[in-house]
Write a structure and sequence with these properties.
By secondary structure, the protein is of the alpha+beta class. It has 3 domains: about 90 residues, Butyryl-Coa Dehydrogenase, subunit A, domain 1; about 110 residues, Beta Barrel (Butyryl-CoA Dehydrogenase, subunit A, domain 2); about 140 residues, Butyryl-CoA Dehydrogenase, subunit A, domain 3, CATH 1.20.140. About 45% of the residues lie in helices and about 15% in strands. A hairpin with a 2-residue loop joins β2 and β3.
Protein backbone atom coordinates (compact mmCIF):
# COMPACT_ATOMS: atom_id res chain seq x y z
CA UNK A 1 0.00 0.00 0.00
CA UNK A 2 1.66 3.23 -1.19
CA UNK A 3 0.48 6.24 0.84
CA UNK A 4 2.29 8.83 -1.31
CA UNK A 5 0.12 11.02 -3.52
CA UNK A 6 0.75 11.11 -7.25
CA UNK A 7 1.46 14.43 -9.01
CA UNK A 8 -2.11 14.52 -10.36
CA UNK A 9 -3.54 13.90 -6.87
CA UNK A 10 -1.38 16.68 -5.41
CA UNK A 11 -2.58 19.02 -8.19
CA UNK A 12 -6.19 18.08 -7.42
CA UNK A 13 -5.67 18.82 -3.73
CA UNK A 14 -4.04 22.19 -4.42
CA UNK A 15 -6.82 23.19 -6.80
CA UNK A 16 -9.48 22.47 -4.18
CA UNK A 17 -7.47 24.19 -1.44
CA UNK A 18 -7.28 27.30 -3.62
CA UNK A 19 -11.04 27.23 -4.16
CA UNK A 20 -11.65 26.91 -0.41
CA UNK A 21 -9.30 29.81 0.37
CA UNK A 22 -11.27 32.01 -2.02
CA UNK A 23 -14.79 30.93 -1.07
CA UNK A 24 -14.82 29.65 2.54
CA UNK A 25 -15.00 32.84 4.61
CA UNK A 26 -14.81 32.82 8.41
CA UNK A 27 -18.55 33.45 8.75
CA UNK A 28 -19.21 30.16 6.91
CA UNK A 29 -16.94 27.95 9.00
CA UNK A 30 -18.28 25.13 11.11
CA UNK A 31 -18.14 26.85 14.50
CA UNK A 32 -20.25 29.73 13.14
CA UNK A 33 -22.99 27.80 11.34
CA UNK A 34 -23.15 24.42 13.13
CA UNK A 35 -26.12 25.43 15.29
CA UNK A 36 -29.10 25.49 12.95
CA UNK A 37 -31.24 27.20 15.60
CA UNK A 38 -29.30 30.39 14.90
CA UNK A 39 -30.99 32.62 12.36
CA UNK A 40 -29.47 32.38 8.92
CA UNK A 41 -27.25 29.33 9.63
CA UNK A 42 -29.18 27.02 7.34
CA UNK A 43 -29.38 29.58 4.55
CA UNK A 44 -25.65 30.28 4.83
CA UNK A 45 -24.77 26.60 4.56
CA UNK A 46 -27.11 26.03 1.65
CA UNK A 47 -25.73 29.06 -0.19
CA UNK A 48 -22.17 27.80 0.25
CA UNK A 49 -23.11 24.37 -1.10
CA UNK A 50 -24.88 25.83 -4.13
CA UNK A 51 -21.68 27.76 -4.85
CA UNK A 52 -19.74 24.51 -4.55
CA UNK A 53 -22.16 22.84 -6.94
CA UNK A 54 -22.02 25.66 -9.47
CA UNK A 55 -18.21 25.43 -9.52
CA UNK A 56 -18.19 21.63 -9.82
CA UNK A 57 -17.10 20.85 -6.24
CA UNK A 58 -19.98 18.57 -5.27
CA UNK A 59 -20.03 14.91 -6.25
CA UNK A 60 -16.44 15.10 -7.47
CA UNK A 61 -16.18 11.30 -7.77
CA UNK A 62 -19.42 10.98 -9.71
CA UNK A 63 -18.89 9.81 -13.31
CA UNK A 64 -18.64 12.54 -15.92
CA UNK A 65 -21.71 11.15 -17.66
CA UNK A 66 -23.72 12.20 -14.61
CA UNK A 67 -22.06 15.61 -14.30
CA UNK A 68 -19.28 14.82 -11.82
CA UNK A 69 -15.55 15.35 -12.20
CA UNK A 70 -14.92 11.64 -12.58
CA UNK A 71 -12.38 11.91 -9.76
CA UNK A 72 -10.84 8.73 -8.43
CA UNK A 73 -11.91 7.32 -5.10
CA UNK A 74 -8.63 8.51 -3.57
CA UNK A 75 -9.24 12.02 -4.88
CA UNK A 76 -12.68 11.90 -3.26
CA UNK A 77 -11.02 11.05 0.06
CA UNK A 78 -8.54 13.93 -0.44
CA UNK A 79 -11.50 16.23 -1.13
CA UNK A 80 -13.34 15.14 2.01
CA UNK A 81 -10.25 15.50 4.19
CA UNK A 82 -9.62 19.01 2.86
CA UNK A 83 -13.17 20.00 3.80
CA UNK A 84 -12.47 18.85 7.37
CA UNK A 85 -9.07 20.56 7.58
CA UNK A 86 -10.46 23.84 6.24
CA UNK A 87 -13.15 24.04 8.92
CA UNK A 88 -15.98 23.89 6.37
CA UNK A 89 -19.41 22.95 7.71
CA UNK A 90 -20.65 19.40 7.20
CA UNK A 91 -22.51 19.20 3.90
CA UNK A 92 -26.28 19.30 4.32
CA UNK A 93 -26.55 17.51 0.97
CA UNK A 94 -24.35 14.57 2.06
CA UNK A 95 -27.20 12.04 2.08
CA UNK A 96 -27.94 12.84 -1.55
CA UNK A 97 -24.32 13.13 -2.64
CA UNK A 98 -22.80 10.15 -0.86
CA UNK A 99 -25.68 7.72 -0.41
CA UNK A 100 -28.72 8.31 -2.62
CA UNK A 101 -26.80 9.51 -5.68
CA UNK A 102 -24.57 6.41 -5.95
CA UNK A 103 -27.58 4.12 -5.41
CA UNK A 104 -29.53 5.96 -8.11
CA UNK A 105 -26.64 5.36 -10.49
CA UNK A 106 -26.62 1.65 -9.59
CA UNK A 107 -30.30 0.71 -9.59
CA UNK A 108 -32.33 3.81 -10.52
CA UNK A 109 -34.39 4.01 -13.69
CA UNK A 110 -33.31 6.36 -16.46
CA UNK A 111 -36.18 8.69 -15.54
CA UNK A 112 -35.14 8.73 -11.87
CA UNK A 113 -31.52 9.47 -12.73
CA UNK A 114 -32.54 12.28 -15.07
CA UNK A 115 -34.86 13.83 -12.47
CA UNK A 116 -32.77 13.59 -9.30
CA UNK A 117 -29.03 13.43 -10.01
CA UNK A 118 -28.45 16.93 -11.39
CA UNK A 119 -30.24 18.79 -8.53
CA UNK A 120 -28.18 16.77 -6.02
CA UNK A 121 -24.97 17.58 -7.86
CA UNK A 122 -25.74 21.31 -7.95
CA UNK A 123 -26.65 21.44 -4.25
CA UNK A 124 -30.20 22.46 -5.10
CA UNK A 125 -32.08 19.67 -3.29
CA UNK A 126 -31.58 18.11 0.15
CA UNK A 127 -32.33 14.47 0.97
CA UNK A 128 -33.49 12.85 4.19
CA UNK A 129 -32.73 9.21 5.10
CA UNK A 130 -35.81 7.55 6.61
CA UNK A 131 -34.71 4.07 7.73
CA UNK A 132 -34.84 3.67 11.54
CA UNK A 133 -38.07 3.46 13.52
CA UNK A 134 -38.87 3.47 17.26
CA UNK A 135 -39.09 -0.35 17.24
CA UNK A 136 -36.77 -1.04 14.32
CA UNK A 137 -33.36 0.54 14.76
CA UNK A 138 -30.73 -2.17 15.04
CA UNK A 139 -33.28 -4.67 13.73
CA UNK A 140 -34.04 -2.57 10.68
CA UNK A 141 -35.83 -5.43 8.92
CA UNK A 142 -38.49 -5.24 11.65
CA UNK A 143 -39.75 -1.90 10.35
CA UNK A 144 -43.51 -1.33 10.46
CA UNK A 145 -43.98 1.65 8.14
CA UNK A 146 -46.16 0.31 5.36
CA UNK A 147 -47.05 1.33 1.83
CA UNK A 148 -50.22 0.10 0.14
CA UNK A 149 -50.82 0.43 -3.58
CA UNK A 150 -53.99 2.37 -4.42
CA UNK A 151 -54.34 2.66 -8.17
CA UNK A 152 -51.26 4.46 -9.45
CA UNK A 153 -50.16 5.68 -6.01
CA UNK A 154 -48.55 4.26 -2.92
CA UNK A 155 -50.16 5.31 0.37
CA UNK A 156 -47.66 5.41 3.25
CA UNK A 157 -48.43 5.14 6.97
CA UNK A 158 -45.82 4.93 9.72
CA UNK A 159 -43.14 6.64 11.76
CA UNK A 160 -39.41 7.17 11.33
CA UNK A 161 -36.86 8.43 13.85
CA UNK A 162 -33.24 9.67 14.07
CA UNK A 163 -33.08 11.16 10.58
CA UNK A 164 -31.46 14.56 10.13
CA UNK A 165 -32.57 17.64 8.18
CA UNK A 166 -36.08 16.21 7.66
CA UNK A 167 -37.68 19.62 8.20
CA UNK A 168 -35.53 21.12 5.43
CA UNK A 169 -35.42 18.17 3.04
CA UNK A 170 -36.92 18.16 -0.41
CA UNK A 171 -36.90 14.37 -0.79
CA UNK A 172 -36.78 11.34 1.48
CA UNK A 173 -35.17 7.94 0.94
CA UNK A 174 -37.70 5.91 2.92
CA UNK A 175 -37.98 2.18 3.57
CA UNK A 176 -41.52 0.83 3.77
CA UNK A 177 -43.08 -2.62 3.89
CA UNK A 178 -44.92 -3.33 0.65
CA UNK A 179 -45.60 -7.06 1.17
CA UNK A 180 -46.72 -7.74 4.76
CA UNK A 181 -46.95 -11.50 4.11
CA UNK A 182 -43.30 -11.91 3.08
CA UNK A 183 -40.48 -12.75 5.54
CA UNK A 184 -39.28 -9.60 7.26
CA UNK A 185 -36.11 -9.19 5.18
CA UNK A 186 -38.25 -9.37 2.07
CA UNK A 187 -41.31 -7.40 1.16
CA UNK A 188 -39.55 -4.07 1.89
CA UNK A 189 -39.24 -1.41 -0.81
CA UNK A 190 -37.03 1.66 -1.11
CA UNK A 191 -39.22 4.67 -1.80
CA UNK A 192 -38.60 8.23 -2.97
CA UNK A 193 -40.89 10.50 -0.98
CA UNK A 194 -41.44 14.27 -1.49
CA UNK A 195 -40.95 15.62 2.03
CA UNK A 196 -43.40 18.48 1.56
CA UNK A 197 -46.26 16.12 0.65
CA UNK A 198 -49.55 16.31 2.63
CA UNK A 199 -49.61 13.91 5.57
CA UNK A 200 -45.97 14.36 6.66
CA UNK A 201 -45.36 15.77 10.15
CA UNK A 202 -41.84 16.51 11.42
CA UNK A 203 -40.87 16.99 15.08
CA UNK A 204 -37.50 17.66 16.73
CA UNK A 205 -35.54 15.43 19.08
CA UNK A 206 -33.64 17.14 21.90
CA UNK A 207 -30.12 15.74 21.99
CA UNK A 208 -27.64 15.25 24.84
CA UNK A 209 -25.51 18.00 23.33
CA UNK A 210 -28.39 20.48 23.63
CA UNK A 211 -28.91 20.57 19.87
CA UNK A 212 -31.98 19.63 17.83
CA UNK A 213 -30.53 18.29 14.59
CA UNK A 214 -32.48 15.02 14.50
CA UNK A 215 -36.13 14.43 13.77
CA UNK A 216 -39.11 12.16 14.15
CA UNK A 217 -41.19 11.95 10.99
CA UNK A 218 -44.80 10.75 10.84
CA UNK A 219 -46.42 9.56 7.62
CA UNK A 220 -50.22 9.68 7.70
CA UNK A 221 -51.67 8.63 4.37
CA UNK A 222 -48.83 10.14 2.33
CA UNK A 223 -49.36 9.53 -1.38
CA UNK A 224 -46.51 9.10 -3.84
CA UNK A 225 -46.49 8.03 -7.51
CA UNK A 226 -46.27 4.31 -8.22
CA UNK A 227 -42.97 4.79 -10.05
CA UNK A 228 -41.26 6.29 -6.97
CA UNK A 229 -39.79 2.92 -5.98
CA UNK A 230 -35.99 2.82 -6.24
CA UNK A 231 -34.76 -0.57 -7.39
CA UNK A 232 -36.93 -3.69 -7.70
CA UNK A 233 -40.21 -3.82 -5.78
CA UNK A 234 -39.88 -5.72 -2.48
CA UNK A 235 -36.06 -5.69 -2.76
CA UNK A 236 -35.47 -2.59 -0.65
CA UNK A 237 -33.46 -4.54 1.93
CA UNK A 238 -30.78 -5.28 -0.64
CA UNK A 239 -30.77 -1.70 -1.91
CA UNK A 240 -30.55 -0.32 1.65
CA UNK A 241 -27.60 -2.58 2.48
CA UNK A 242 -25.73 -1.34 -0.58
CA UNK A 243 -26.39 2.22 0.59
CA UNK A 244 -25.19 1.45 4.13
CA UNK A 245 -21.96 0.12 2.67
CA UNK A 246 -21.22 3.63 1.43
CA UNK A 247 -22.13 5.10 4.85
CA UNK A 248 -19.85 2.78 6.85
CA UNK A 249 -16.98 2.57 4.42
CA UNK A 250 -14.72 5.11 2.75
CA UNK A 251 -16.93 7.92 4.04
CA UNK A 252 -15.37 7.34 7.48
CA UNK A 253 -11.84 8.36 6.39
CA UNK A 254 -12.54 12.09 6.92
CA UNK A 255 -13.64 11.24 10.47
CA UNK A 256 -10.10 10.03 11.12
CA UNK A 257 -8.84 13.45 10.07
CA UNK A 258 -11.33 15.19 12.35
CA UNK A 259 -10.43 12.91 15.25
CA UNK A 260 -6.74 13.61 14.72
CA UNK A 261 -7.41 17.34 15.02
CA UNK A 262 -9.41 16.83 18.21
CA UNK A 263 -6.68 14.56 19.62
CA UNK A 264 -4.17 17.34 19.02
CA UNK A 265 -6.37 19.68 21.09
CA UNK A 266 -6.41 17.14 23.91
CA UNK A 267 -2.64 16.68 23.72
CA UNK A 268 -2.05 20.43 23.86
CA UNK A 269 -4.51 20.79 26.74
CA UNK A 270 -2.70 18.08 28.70
CA UNK A 271 0.66 19.75 28.04
CA UNK A 272 -0.45 23.21 29.16
CA UNK A 273 -2.71 22.50 32.16
CA UNK A 274 -1.98 21.35 35.69
CA UNK A 275 -4.01 19.60 38.35
CA UNK A 276 -2.86 19.64 41.97
CA UNK A 277 0.36 21.25 40.81
CA UNK A 278 1.24 18.50 38.33
CA UNK A 279 1.13 18.89 34.57
CA UNK A 280 -1.53 16.56 33.16
CA UNK A 281 0.79 15.23 30.48
CA UNK A 282 3.21 14.08 33.18
CA UNK A 283 0.71 11.69 34.74
CA UNK A 284 1.35 8.12 33.55
CA UNK A 285 -2.31 7.18 33.09
CA UNK A 286 -2.94 10.36 31.04
CA UNK A 287 0.07 9.66 28.83
CA UNK A 288 -1.15 6.09 28.36
CA UNK A 289 -4.67 7.29 27.50
CA UNK A 290 -3.31 9.79 24.96
CA UNK A 291 -1.19 7.08 23.37
CA UNK A 292 -4.10 4.63 23.26
CA UNK A 293 -6.40 7.20 21.65
CA UNK A 294 -3.78 8.09 19.07
CA UNK A 295 -3.31 4.43 18.19
CA UNK A 296 -7.08 3.93 17.88
CA UNK A 297 -7.38 6.82 15.44
CA UNK A 298 -4.45 5.57 13.38
CA UNK A 299 -5.86 2.04 13.34
CA UNK A 300 -9.10 3.49 12.04
CA UNK A 301 -7.25 5.36 9.30
CA UNK A 302 -5.16 2.35 8.29
CA UNK A 303 -8.17 0.02 8.25
CA UNK A 304 -9.92 2.43 5.89
CA UNK A 305 -6.84 2.81 3.67
CA UNK A 306 -6.42 -0.95 3.49
CA UNK A 307 -9.87 -1.36 2.00
CA UNK A 308 -9.52 1.75 -0.10
CA UNK A 309 -6.80 -0.05 -2.05
CA UNK A 310 -9.31 -2.83 -2.80
CA UNK A 311 -11.92 -0.34 -3.99
CA UNK A 312 -9.36 1.37 -6.22
CA UNK A 313 -8.88 -2.01 -7.90
CA UNK A 314 -12.60 -2.21 -8.65
CA UNK A 315 -13.99 -4.11 -5.65
CA UNK A 316 -17.32 -2.58 -4.50
CA UNK A 317 -17.89 -1.88 -0.77
CA UNK A 318 -19.36 -4.90 1.05
CA UNK A 319 -19.44 -6.50 4.50
CA UNK A 320 -15.90 -5.37 5.34
CA UNK A 321 -17.28 -1.88 5.93
CA UNK A 322 -18.42 -3.21 9.31
CA UNK A 323 -14.74 -3.38 10.32
CA UNK A 324 -14.48 0.33 9.54
CA UNK A 325 -17.58 1.14 11.55
CA UNK A 326 -16.21 -0.72 14.61
CA UNK A 327 -12.89 1.18 14.42
CA UNK A 328 -14.74 4.45 13.89
CA UNK A 329 -16.91 4.05 17.01
CA UNK A 330 -14.06 2.81 19.21
CA UNK A 331 -11.80 5.71 18.25
CA UNK A 332 -14.49 8.33 18.77
CA UNK A 333 -15.64 7.11 22.17
CA UNK A 334 -12.06 6.84 23.37
CA UNK A 335 -11.50 10.49 22.52
CA UNK A 336 -14.74 11.52 24.23
CA UNK A 337 -13.81 9.69 27.42
CA UNK A 338 -10.33 11.20 27.37
CA UNK A 339 -11.77 14.71 26.97
CA UNK A 340 -13.80 14.35 30.17
CA UNK A 341 -10.84 12.78 31.96
CA UNK A 342 -8.65 15.77 31.10
CA UNK A 343 -11.24 18.46 31.71
CA UNK A 344 -12.68 17.15 34.94
CA UNK A 345 -15.72 18.98 36.30
CA UNK A 346 -15.14 21.98 34.04
CA UNK A 347 -15.71 19.77 30.99
CA UNK A 348 -19.26 18.86 31.97
CA UNK A 349 -20.96 22.09 30.87
CA UNK A 350 -22.88 22.26 27.61
CA UNK A 351 -22.06 24.69 24.79
CA UNK A 352 -23.28 28.18 25.58
CA UNK A 353 -23.04 27.87 29.37
CA UNK A 354 -20.80 30.26 31.29
CA UNK A 355 -17.30 29.07 32.15
CA UNK A 356 -17.68 25.93 30.07
CA UNK A 357 -14.31 24.42 29.19
CA UNK A 358 -13.31 24.83 25.52
CA UNK A 359 -16.66 26.48 24.77
CA UNK A 360 -18.35 23.15 25.43
CA UNK A 361 -16.26 21.26 22.86
CA UNK A 362 -15.13 18.58 25.34
CA UNK A 363 -18.60 17.78 26.68
CA UNK A 364 -20.12 18.01 23.21
CA UNK A 365 -17.60 15.52 21.80
CA UNK A 366 -18.20 13.09 24.63
CA UNK A 367 -22.00 13.29 24.30
CA UNK A 368 -21.92 12.91 20.52
CA UNK A 369 -19.51 9.97 20.74
CA UNK A 370 -22.17 8.01 22.65
CA UNK A 371 -24.25 7.90 19.46
CA UNK A 372 -21.40 6.64 17.28
CA UNK A 373 -21.87 3.05 18.45
CA UNK A 374 -25.53 3.25 17.36
CA UNK A 375 -25.82 5.28 14.17
CA UNK A 376 -25.16 3.40 10.95
CA UNK A 377 -25.72 0.10 12.80
CA UNK A 378 -24.81 -0.78 16.38
CA UNK A 379 -21.54 -2.41 17.40
CA UNK A 380 -23.35 -5.69 18.04
CA UNK A 381 -24.83 -5.62 14.54
CA UNK A 382 -21.41 -4.90 13.02
CA UNK A 383 -19.79 -7.73 14.97
CA UNK A 384 -22.52 -10.12 13.88
CA UNK A 385 -21.93 -9.16 10.25
CA UNK A 386 -18.18 -9.69 10.66
CA UNK A 387 -18.70 -13.05 12.39
CA UNK A 388 -21.31 -14.47 10.03
CA UNK A 389 -20.53 -12.98 6.62
CA UNK A 390 -16.74 -12.59 6.79
CA UNK A 391 -15.53 -15.25 9.24
CA UNK A 392 -18.28 -17.74 8.36
CA UNK A 393 -19.25 -18.44 11.96
CA UNK A 394 -22.71 -19.93 12.72
CA UNK A 395 -25.49 -17.66 13.91
CA UNK A 396 -25.84 -17.60 17.68
Amino acid sequence: MNLDLSPSEIAFREKFRAWLRENLTDDLKWERVADLSHSGAWEARRGFERRMGADGWLGVAWPREYGGQGATLLEQVIYQEELVRSGAPALTSSVGLELVGPILMEVGSEEQRHRFLTPILLGEEVWYQGFSEPNAGSDLAGLQTRAVLDGDEWVIHGQKVWGGFAEHADWGAVLARTDPDAPKHRGISFMIVPMKAPGITVSYIKEMTGGEHLNEVFFDGVRIPRENVLGPLNQGWRVANRLLGYERGVMTLPFATRYERFWEKLRDFASSNRRRGERLSERPHIRAALARSYVDVQMMRLANLRWLTHYLRGTPPAEETSYMKVYWAQAHQGLGDLALELGGGAALGLPGELETLAAGAFSNEWAFSRSTTILGGTQDIQRNIIAERILGLPRA
